[in-house]
Predict the 3D structure of the following.
Amino acid sequence: MAESTPLEDPVSGKKSSQCRYFKMTVLPSQNSAAINDCIEESLDEKTIVLSDTSNRYLDIDKYVEGHVTCYSDKETTNTTLKWVHIAISNAKKNFAGNLSLHQMEEPTSLSR
């Protein structure tokens, strides 16, 4: 999960976002029940969630104020969901063996 703020340059009108922080959680599975439990425990009910259109995220709106979905394609990967993709990529690199800053108790595998 990432907290970000949408920004717009008043001169050029160019839109971007600023990311404040990330919270990553290892889920027991990738099904919607595990995702819903994580959302319910981690986010305030006044939160607005932006996600891709995965069918695992269908029930998120029951736990937060709003849930906005966007189709994940090349454009949204580079704009709307940019920070999420960067965080996931960096996490995979760290878990793949570059663990100089973090040590893991149990080995885990991530799909590449």
